[in-house]
Design a protein that fits this description.
The chain is an alpha/beta fold. The chain folds into two domains: about 120 residues, Glutathione S-transferase Yfyf (Class Pi), Chain A, domain 2 (Up-down Bundle), CATH 1.20.1050.140; about 140 residues, Rossmann fold (3-Layer(aba) Sandwich), CATH 3.40.50.11810. About 40% of the residues lie in helices and about 10% in strands. The protein has a four-stranded parallel beta sheet, sandwiched between helices. A four-stranded parallel beta sheet has the order 6-5-7-8, with helices on both faces. Helix 1 crosses helix 12 and helix 3 crosses helix 4. The radius of gyration is 19 Å and the shape is globular. The protein starts with a strand and ends in a 21-residue tail after the last helix.
Length: about 290
């Protein structure tokens, strides 16, 4: 599979460990990533609150450039980017007025369909299991670790862009994690909000929300949390010391990206994954 790659702002900034793990996991799995030249911010999370036209036109710039690459689709590993790109693509496809508006704004033709994928969709649990069962495979270094898979808000909302058939109780990420040799716990907060971009205007609210998520994961027996969004990761990992001050369980919980788990399971050395960028230490796990 050959996919145009949209990293998003966080993955080339504060969340560089996400970017390195996406590249490593895809290469180890056999997915070719092609950089989108001149991609621009998708507008998350302020554009759609300011202007509907801007919220469509910003993703349309990158969608237009991705179309020119002739790839099998577009891949992103950020839940917010996926949400904005997918919604824009659907509007462009289904609404001639929106398509004309975006073509005028971007000066690019947006004809034909472009498949938009989040990283959670392009790895197959059955194929992962088969790869890791071969005599030459590298045994998962996280084997047996109990984790809570946290989907957050934007991978399953709205229902039209959900990566999972069940937007209320999704299981796709859990299936991938189990295929890598980890154990997943059942917990009730897998699609609850972490506070998202309110970390700047309302940091106390984000601390409360993330503290509740971490407490719930720990209460269900999780030794780590697995996420698929750099903003979720920042709130649960970077803000964890603040959230833990009033926590019922002050023991730190490592927060891993799904693509880090996949890369480690597929034999990528931890030294290539920027694991030391995490606030709550991860290397001790691997």
């Amino acid at each position: 599979m050959r996919l145009a790659y949209f990293p998003g702002c966080a993955a080339v900034g504060t969340g560089r460990e996400l970017n390195s793990s996406v590249s490593a996991a895809c290469a180890a799995y056999g997915i070719e990533l092609v950089d989108i030249p001149g991609w621009v911010c998708c507008g998350a999370s302020a554009a759609h609150m300011t202007s509907a036209a801007l919220a469509r036109s910003l993703p349309a710039v990158s969608l237009g450039k991705a179309r020119q690459l002739g790839a099998d689709g577009l891949l992103t590993a950020c839940a917010a980017c996926y949400n904005r790109l997918k919604l824009a693509e659907l509007e462009i496809r289904d609404n001639p007025r929106v398509r004309a508006e975006c073509e005028e704004a971007t000066r690019a033709k947006l004809d034909g369909e472009l498949a938009i994928y989040h990283a959670v969709e392009v790895f197959d649990p059955a194929r992962l299991g088969a790869l890791l069962a071969t005599p030459t495979s590298v045994a998962p270094r996280l084997k047996g670790l109990k984790v809570a898979c946290y989907y957050g808000c934007l991978l399953t909302r709205p229902k039209t862009v959900s990566v999972d058939p069940d937007p209320v109780n999704p299981s796709l990420m859990d299936d991938l994690v189990r295929a890598c040799g980890l154990d997943t716990v059942d917990w009730p907060f897998k699609t609850e909000c972490c506070g998202a971009s309110m970390v700047l205007p309302r940091p106390e609210s984000v601390s409360r929300l993330t503290g509740r998520l971490l407490d719930a994961a720990a209460a269900c027996g999780a030794e780590a949390v697995v996420v698929a969004c750099p903003l979720c990761h920042a709130n649960l990992d970077l803000k964890q010391p603040t959230a833990r001050r009033a926590s019922a369980n002050p023991v730190p919980i490592p927060v891993l990206y799904l693509t880090e788990v996949l890369a480690l399971a597929l034999g990528v050395p931890g030294s290539k994954l920027d694991l030391r960028r995490h606030t709550v230490p991860v290397p001790a796990l691997v």
